[in-house]
Amino acid sequence: MYICVCNALTDGDVRSAEAAGAATQGQVFRHYGVKMQCGRCANAMRSTLGGPSALGQAALAGERRHADDAQPTVGHSRRAER
C-alpha cells in the first residue's frame, strides 16, 4: 500500500527503512533521499513505523478473537445474563 504518494513510498519501503535503522518520518525520507511534500502521509507513516506488519496484525486479531472465546478459570463463574 502506498504510504507517501508524493514520493511513491509504500509500507514495505517504510518497513525496510525502519529495518535499516529509521525510527522517525524524517529518517525514512532521508533514507530514500526525498523530502516530505504535502504531509498527508504523516499519520499513515507514524502508524506504520513501529507497528506490527500486516501478517503480525492478522495474528494479533486471531489471538484477540480466541481470547474473547476463553472460558473462565476453575472456581470462577460467569454472572447469569439477564
Structural overview:
- The chain has a single domain, classed as Orthogonal Bundle (Arc Repressor Mutant, subunit A), CATH 1.10.10.1100.
- Helices cover 48% and strands 6% of the residues.
- It has helices at residues 11-19, 25-32, 42-48, 54-68, and strands spanning 2-4, 9-10.
- A two-stranded antiparallel ribbon has the order 1-2.
- A hairpin with a 4-residue loop joins strand 1 (2-4) and strand 2 (9-10).
- The N and C termini lie far apart (46 Å).
Summarize this entry quickly:
By secondary structure, the chain is mainly α. It contains four helices and two strands.
- Total number of strands: 2
CATH structural fold name? Arc Repressor Mutant, subunit A
Measure the end-to-end span.
46 Å
The CATH superfamily title: BFD-like [2Fe-2S]-binding domain
How would you summarize the topology of this molecule?
Blueprint: E1 2-4, E2 9-10, H1 11-19, H2 25-32, H3 42-48, H4 54-68
Antiparallel strand pairs: 1-2
Output the keywords:
4 helices, mainly alpha, globular, 82 residues, two-stranded antiparallel sheet, Arc Repressor Mutant, subunit A
